[in-house]
Amino acid sequence: MSKFKIGVLGSGRGSNFEAIAQAIANGGLSADLRIVISDVETSRILELARKRGIRAEFVDPGGFRTKMAPLSEARVVALLQEAKVELVVLAGYMRVVKEPLLEAFPGRILNIHPSLLPKFPGLEAWRQALEARESVTGCTVHYVDSIVDGGKIIARKEVPILPDDTAQSLHERIQAAEHHLYPEVLSFFCNRP
Ligand code: GRF
To answer: Looking at the annotation, which residues are catalytic?
Structure first.
C-alpha cells in the first residue's frame, strides 16, 4: 500500500515536525514526509528537515506581516502539489492561511493549537489560560479554514495547570502533549482506507 503523503508548514522551532518525523522513523506512523516549507529562511524547522534528508524549502512571504503575499502562497501551493502532498500539516506556522492554499487543499489542512479550542484562540494561548486562572488547558488538532483557530475540531488533549506553573513551564508541558497528539491524529488520517 502506498504511504500517505504529508507536507509540513512551519515558521519556528519545529518540535512538532520532529515528533512527527520521529513517529515515522519509529514505525508508529506510516506516512511519507515529502516536503517542509517555511516562511522563515533561518528557521530551525528547515534545518531539522535537511538533517533528516527531507526536502526543505524557504518561500519568501512578501511584504505582509500576518499572511503570505498571494504570489508567495501560490508558490507554496505549487511546491506542495509538485511534491504530490495529500495532507498539509501546519506545525507552528505563524501566518493566516488564505484562499490559494485553502482552495487547493479543501478539508486537507490541519493545525495544532496550544489550548483546548474553542477556548483561547490566538497568540500565546497557554498564557491566556494561565491568566484566566483555568485549572486545565491542553492542545487541539483542528481543520484549517478561513477562521483563525476556528476550523472543525478533530482531537484534544488535556494538560493540568499546576499551582506553581509559569507561562514557560505550562507551555513546555503543553508542547509535550502536542508531540503525542499530532502523530496520533495523523496516524488516524494516514490509515484511513
Ligand atoms: C506549538 O505550540 C503549536 O501549538 C503552535 O505553535 C507551536 C509550534 O511549536 N501552533 P514547534 O515549532 O512545533 O516547536
So the answer is: 113
**What CATH number should be reported for the domain holding residue 173?**
3.40.50.170
Question: What does the pLDDT look like over 18-38, one tens digit per residue?
Answer: 999 999 999 999 999 999 999
- Its domain, for residue 11, covers 4-191
Q: How far is the CA of 52 from the centre of ligand 1 (A)?
A: 19
Domain count of the fold of the chain: 1
- The alpha carbon of 166 and the centre of ligand 1 are apart by a number of angstroms equal to 18
Relative to the CA of 10, which ligand 1 atom is closest? 12
pLDDT tens sequence across 151-177 = 999 999 999 999 999 999 999 999 999
CA 91 – ligand 1 centroid, Å: 6
For ligand 1, atom 14, the nearest C-alpha belongs to: 15
- Given a contact cutoff of 8 angstroms between Cβ atoms, the answer to whether 139 and 75 are in contact is no
CA distance 150 to 10: 19
AA identity, residue 152: K
What is the pLDDT at residue 173?
98
Query: Are the C-beta atoms of 17 and 99 separated by less than 8 Å?
Result: no
Cis check for the bond before 118: say yes or no (omega within 30 of 0): yes
To the nearest 10°, the Cα dihedral for 8, 142, 152, 33?
Answer: 30
Residue 28: per-residue pLDDT? 92
